[in-house]
Amino acid sequence: MHKLCRYVRFSINPFLPADEAGFNSFASKPAGEGLSVFLELGVELAGEADAATGLIVNVSDIDQKVRDCAVGVFAEKIKADHREARHTGYDELVRLLKIVWEKLADKFGSAQLLKLSLKLSPFRTLAVSDEDCAMVYYSEKFEFAAAHKLWNEKFSEKQNIEVFGKCANPAGHGHNYIVEVTVKWPSGQAMRTGEFEKVVNQELIKVVDHKNLNEDLPEFQRTTPTVENIAVFAWNKLVGRFGKTMILHCVTVWETDKTYSSYYG
């Protein structure tokens, strides 16, 4: 069984009578004119690769199905809300995702639709999944800068170099970390972005930002602050902190744009 994910980008102009189709799907199609609403819909599928083609589904077919079945759903609602000076909240976006799910679910042959994700900005994503269709998933990225030392005092210098490579510097080194926090809540429940961000900022970011993790945090005086252990640390700081209905689902920490670790508790 294979998984395939395709991201389809499109832009909506709330006050124009029609959206320009455009010719650059890498940027967005429809293209958008001037200041427009940019969205990215992620379609995750599962299925067997065809023996003759090696494909689960041709990605061009995914693009076309999304533009035929999904873009209009978002465009109609966004245009209507703008005309009425009405806010489009998370609950409405989830409702639209579920409408799109119904429209797309049977459009990919034998491939199964696993997940739809709507990127609201480069740093925020809303998603629904067949794994738990009663829940809504929300992800947001944060940043912090910190130093750490990958060095085990019980190892010899040679052992440290063998294990940690060029990171085996007794004086330590720094990173600009990115941490993505994903929570879930029952469909129909309210979510306030500012309240969510306040918890992450207070419980995690302020604790680690511009710190020497080995020296300043008691947890890492006993444990090496690898990206794997930082993800666990972040989980422990945040789990149970989002109230009764919002549940921590996953924490992902990027050490560089090439290296990350996710922890699910």
Features:
Tetrahydropterin Synthase, Chain A, 2 domains, 8 helices, globular, alpha+beta, 265 residues
Total number of domains: 2
Return the CATH architecture of the largest domain.
2-Layer Sandwich
- CATH topology call of the largest domain: Tetrahydropterin Synthase, Chain A
Model regions low in confidence, pLDDT < 50 over at least 5 residues: none
Give the CA-CA distance, first to last residue: 26 Å
| Rg estimate, integer Å | 22 Å
Structural class given helices, strands, pairing?
Answer: alpha+beta
| Global geometry | globular
Helical run tally: 8
The mean pLDDT is: 92
Order of helices and strands: EEHHHEEEHEHEHHHEE
Largest sheet: 9 strands, mixed
The total beta strand count reads: 9
The amount of helix comes to 25-40%
Strand content: 25-35%
**CATH class categorisation of the largest domain:** Alpha Beta
CATH homologous superfamily of the largest domain - what is it?
Answer: 6-pyruvoyl tetrahydropterin synthase/QueD
